[in-house]
User: What shape does this take?
Amino acid sequence: MMAVGQNIIEIRDLRVRFPIFGGLFLGKVAEVKAVDGISFDLVQGETLGMVGESGCGKTTVGRAIINILRATAPDVIVEGQVNLKTDEGSVDLANMKKRTIRPYRAQIQMIFQDPFASLNPRLTVMRIVEEPLLIHTDMTKAERVERVGWLLDKVGLNPEQAQRYPHEFSGGQRQRIGIARALATNPKVIIADEPVSALDVSIQAQVINLLQDLQDELNLTYLFIAHDISVVEHIAQRIVVMYLGDLVEIGTSDQIYHDPKHPYSAALLSAVPLPDPKSIDKRERIILMGDIPSPLAKPSGCSFRTRCPIAKDSCAVEIPPFRDYGDGRKVACPWV
Assistant: This one.
């Protein structure tokens, strides 16, 4: 049993590239650098938020950690290490094949962004939530039925609804079904990939409160991926900020939300709408110039330099290393 405060997952120099094929002989002509050498730790019992603009590589990181990218993109190139700490020792999920990783899938599960697309419309809720139990446990039919009923009740659904199909539920209810499925095997870690972005604001609050209650009760560890930094600030203890496949800042929620150091973190925060219109002048609005560069042709050196208001000539030479402030905050910029 791991103690709270210990690293449960350690990501080291993770890189994900998607080759592009073309030409007369369908050869490799380019590659998309979706994730470009990132490293961070996930601590037992915490919620680590991951934020950034759409297309920055957040979802790819989550899918690389759980090692499901090759199922949808067989040509993907995944390098680096994703070390999961288990009772038997550390295992590298990133370099495991389908057969060898199966015993560890029960320990790390994923909640997907679209609660309708991630649920098989031909299966009942009973069959959807029961499927991980069929794969990873030796439960009898009666035990699985009891477990599914317990899970549905735990996420705020009526166990009698187990024989219905996904289309008979609202968006928030479908996401609760996805959460129940993720909890089926008693995982240690859950990757939540923008679990509330497709829901109404009132339903978002319900789902976030549910996730927090489940974390307290079941001692879960979350990697919470989102583009809305205000949502992440509410649920996460620490936040990592991504831009174009790179990590640019790591810190506590309070540090990132109230005192961002990296220019991109500050710009991302300035875009968050304030509930009180009278206080809008209290936060400086930062307008980034230019478009996000293509991951097919990332800028040399710092990937943010083409839009950075404080960029210098040296920023084009090499990728800036993290500057450690000693209080848990790390910033990939030498000028702040």
The longest strand covers residues 27-43. The longest helix spans residues 201-218. The radius of gyration is 21 Å.
